[in-house]
Amino acid sequence: MKRTTAIVVGAGPAGSACALSLARKGIECIVLERGQKPGEKNVASFVLLTDVLKHLVPDFMEDAPLERAVTEESVILLGRNDVVNIRARYYGHLKDSSAFTAYRGKFDAWLAGKAEEAGAQMITGATVTDLIIEGGSVRGVRVGDDELLADVVVGADGVNSVVAEKSGLVSRQDSSM
Ligand SMILES: Cc1cc2nc3c(=O)[nH]c(=O)nc-3n(C[C@H](O)[C@H](O)[C@H](O)COP(=O)(O)OP(=O)(O)OC[C@H]3O[C@@H](n4cnc5c(N)ncnc54)[C@H](O)[C@@H]3O)c2cc1C
Questions:
Q1: Which one of 1, 134, 136, 170 has the largest count of C-beta atoms within 10 Å of its C-beta?
Q2: Is the C-beta atom of 11 inside 6 A of ligand 1?
Q3: Distances from the Cα of 134 to the Cα of 5, 37, 143, 147, angstroms
Q4: Is the pTM for the entire model greater than 0.85?
């Protein structure tokens, strides 16, 4: 049975940021992502606030797949008969390069690439289906019939996390409610 130091489940922003940080410290790390490539399952665009990214990838402006700088936000309050629109312009954001629109598909793939460049191993098309638990501790994961052991398993598999559920940290919500 294969063994590594750290398994990260999920190559979304949290998983790739974690893998990048581990790999930079020289910690052997395998990322398991169910999509055929990171970001494949996410077609949405989003607003990227770069406060954390600036520390993680200081030169992100050089090659991150950013679309446009965010310069204005609106808060729209809907009443029964009225609409109030509060618009805010952020010239500071432009100066500091702190908020951008981006596509998750492209951004997730880019950040995962940074983790790989740093030395993390990315395995795609790998859906974690269960955990290996011995003596009350998580010892590894199952991907179908395959097993992978590790000193640490990081659950970065999103809101319906298999890792969180199978480790007993959360119970799956009753969808009939
Ligand atoms: C409608 C909406 C709009 C949003 N807009 C914004 C925004 O504009 N800006 C912003 O910063 N945030 C926004 N968010 C929040 C943002 O989407 C989340 O905070 C972010 O996606 C969390 O990242 P994550 O890496 O924890 O999880 P996810 O992005 O969910 O990534 C989880 C990854 O794990 C993989 N995975 C899942 N299960 C398994 C498994 N069993 N085995 C292997 N891999 C698995 C998935 O394929 C995925 O790649 C929005 C959220 C929603 C719902």
A1: 170
A2: yes
A3: 17, 31, 17, 14
A4: yes
